[in-house]
Amino acid sequence: MSELRVLLTNDDGIESPGLQALYDALSEIAAVTAVAPAENQSGVGRSRSGIGHSEPAVDVREHDLGYAVSGTPADCAAFGLRSLPNIGFDLVVSGCNVGPNVGSYILGHSGTVGAAVEAAFLGVPAIAVSAYDPETFFPEDGEFVAAAATTRTVVEQALEGDVFETADLLNLNVRADARTPLRPTQPLADYDTTVETNGDARAAFENSYWAANSVGPDGIPDFETYRDAYPAWSDRAAIVNGEGSLTALSVPQTPLSTEIVEPIVTAHNGQV
């Protein structure tokens, strides 16, 4: 069997300790090449640099772990999969993100997940990995060893099974401070937002995607507050209970039945 080839990226930047932890752990089972943003690109979702311009481009420089790209996580996935064709990557791993990525709304905003989605569109399965601390929410720099070890196990088991015959990508959220059981989950859609305007033509947004309650100005929820707030099947429930969450996803924009829009088309065509 040929050696497993993994493209490693993230959204926190190539110097992130979470990426280094994954690089070390995955190098025990695979040939790993990191292609990651040169700077922090958190929260950029699936955005690509220069889209809409005549010649979109990013700067690339060599790095001890692979390549640093002056672009988004999706740029990094595209560069690695299309500009390093001789490697022939079997899998893309994106992370470890600093803090969890759970809930449908956050998945759309996450650069960590965005890189995995880009990989899926380009025909390579992917795993997005996020680590959290049950007390501080965001883990400290040295707290990624357990998360990286769990990721290595998930990679091995996912590739040994038939997971990627059905799923395009996996979203993995694990504790950074200790290895814990995983729970199969689905993302919870619990987003809402309020907008307050004043007389200075200014609009302030407050997003409430943790059980439709404000998480405060620092964006950090107190897990104890949400202990019984979520259905057991949800990714958020696993996280607030100190467990790991593993969700199988397909790439977005999955087509629905054409019957849904048929009445609109019929009405319109009758007026043409």
Distinct helical segment count:
8
CATH fold category name of the largest domain = Stationary-phase Survival Protein Sure Homolog, Chain: A
- Give the CATH superfamily of the largest domain: Survival protein SurE-like phosphatase/nucleotidase
Mean pLDDT: 90
How many independent structural domains? 2
How do the helices and strands follow one another from N- to C-terminus? EHEEEHEHHEHHEEEEHEH
CA-based shape: globular
Number of strands: 11
What percent of residues adopt helix (DSSP H or I)?
A: 25-40%
Q: What is the CA-based Rg, rounded? A: 20 Å
Distance between the termini: 60 Å
The level-1 CATH class of the largest domain: Alpha Beta
**Beta-strand share of residues:** 15-25%
Explain how this protein is built:
The protein is of the alpha/beta class and 272 residues long. It folds into two domains: 5-185 and 231-249, Stationary-phase Survival Protein Sure Homolog, Chain: A (3-Layer(aba) Sandwich); 193-219, no CATH class. Helix content is 26%, strand content 22%. The protein has eight helices and eleven strands. The protein has helices spanning 17-26, 73-83, 104-109, 111-121, 145-160, 163-166, 235-240, 262-269; strands at residues 5-9, 31-37, 60-63, 66-69, 91-98, 126-132, 169-175, 182-184, 193-197, 203-207, 244-249. The chain has a nine-stranded mixed sheet with strand order 3-4-2-1-5-6-7-11-8, with helices on both faces. Strands 9-10 form a two-stranded antiparallel ribbon. β3 (60-63) and β4 form a beta hairpin. α1 crosses α5 (145-160) and α2 runs parallel beside α4 (111-121). 42% of the residues are buried. The model has no long low-confidence stretch (mean pLDDT 90).
